[in-house]
Amino acid sequence: MVKSMFGQFLVELGIVNETSVYEALNIQLGQKIPIGKIALQEDVLTMKQVFKILNVQADNNKRFGEIAIELGFIDGLHLKELLATQKNKIQPIGEILFKMEKISHDVLERTLKEFKEIMQDA
């Protein structure tokens, strides 16, 4: 099972069950926007470059960003920025669980605050 640190924290506290976290993670995975699409939206790559990367990717097991760097279309900094944008567009697991009505807003806020405090101390 794919793990979410906050999701696992909620399971350990008995607030939600593993099945709910798994469902929420599947929803979250479906929200992941491809890096190529983000690169187009951010005017980092052209459509022609994206197609070239996708064609190369079809012939091997490399990631989109890795190929884009190898082809000289972007550098590591651009890739980090694109990955950060991709991550920021994904809804947090707690919000998904709230929308699924698996956790109340008050409990979510309280446990998220507690989780963040624990993570800072770690």
Summarize the structure.
This protein has helices spanning 5-12, 18-30, 35-41, 47-58, 64-70, 76-88, 93-99, 105-121. With 122 residues, it is an all-alpha fold.
Name the poorly predicted regions: none
Note the main sheet: none
Number of DSSP helical runs? 8
The coarse overall form would be elongated
- Helix and strand sequence: HHHHHHHH
Number of strands: 0
Rg (CA only): 18 Å
Helicity, in percent?
A: 55-70%
Count structural domains.
2
**Strand composition percent:** under 5%
Query: Structural class, judged by helices and strands?
Result: mainly alpha
Terminal CA distance reads 24 Å
> Taking all residues together, what is the mean pLDDT?
93
Give an overview of the whole structure.
The chain has 122 residues and is an all-alpha fold. It folds into two domains: 1-32 and 90-105, no CATH class; 35-88. Helix content is 69%, strand content 0%. The chain contains eight helices and no strands. The protein has helices at residues 5-12, 18-30, 35-41, 47-58, 64-70, 76-88, 93-99, 105-121. It is elongated and about 50 Å long. The two termini are 24 Å apart.
